[in-house]
Amino acid sequence: TYPIIFDTDPGVDDAQAIAIALRHPEIELLGMTTTFGNVDVETATHNALLLGELAGKPVPVAQGAACPMVKPRHPAPKHIHGDNGLGNIDLPPVAGQADPRNAAQFIVDTVNQRPGDVSLVAVGPLGNLAAALQIDPSIVTKVKQVVIMGGSIREGGNVTPVAEANIFNDAHAAQKVLTAEWPLTLVGLDVTHRCVLTPQHMERIETAQGELGKVLAGSYAFYRNFYRQALGIDGCCPHDSVALAWLVRPDLFETQRGHLNVVTEGSAEGQTLFAPKGRAFIQDRWSQTPEVDVCLGVDGQAVSNWITDTLS
Ligand code: BDR
Ligand code: CA
Predict the structure, then answer these.
(1) Cellular component terms, GO, for this chain's entry (predicted)?
(2) Which candidate, 25, 41, 21, places its Cα nearest to that of 33?
(3) Ligand 1, atom nearest to 77 Cα
């Protein structure tokens, strides 16, 4: 099984991924940590609590970063996820409360309780992971692996021509997290843009998931409008679920080893730079960061089916 902490900013595609983390028989969701990103952090926490309750499986939720580490916050993309992060649908009230600990402390505590066991799956801006590294740098040797939905190597960006949203929203935090000495895989737009969750997929999910299914389908309808306008497709990229697909079904992906860095200033702010392993550069500082895996290929249809099968 895969014990994980899910670091998230729900968000329509985050909600789909949370449902998978709660439902997949091989994933043990130890807790969620929340960050600003698609919404403000209080809304993210509310949505994370709500989704756990709707699934009948409340898990600890620890609230984290309210803004980037260094710079002021970029505005939230309300036309993509809605003001409430879930496509502006009416939501039932939440019964439970957040864990009293800060997200970063929750990560540090949980990783130290089960050294070698816990995977961190992060699908929002990376301030919580960066703060956890600051509190306890030894977690780099204690996590099982770190899976990041973020960045783009060949695909181009979705916020600027070069920057993907999760990296762009806190490039300084991303720089720290993507260059730390821990086993890391980047699941970026190179693969998430190859996966499309169609209305037919969502119909099956809605039917199978009861109350939770209504929220997933309602928010999907809003998100679908954005994809129709922005990419001209009928369906949505289930970005954050693809990180979980990598965790459980790495056989569906092609990866390459190499070294990552993040541009933190200027017009390329938030760009992820990738130096493939073994390639010599005249300025060799690009290969001075730790070796990581980057996903560059995927069987997109198989991933979309895996998501749907997990939730049906
Ligand atoms: C990422 O940005 C957010 O809007 C999504 O939830 C996803 O994590 C895709 O670029
Ligand atoms: Ca997200």
Answers:
(1) cytosol
(2) 41
(3) 4
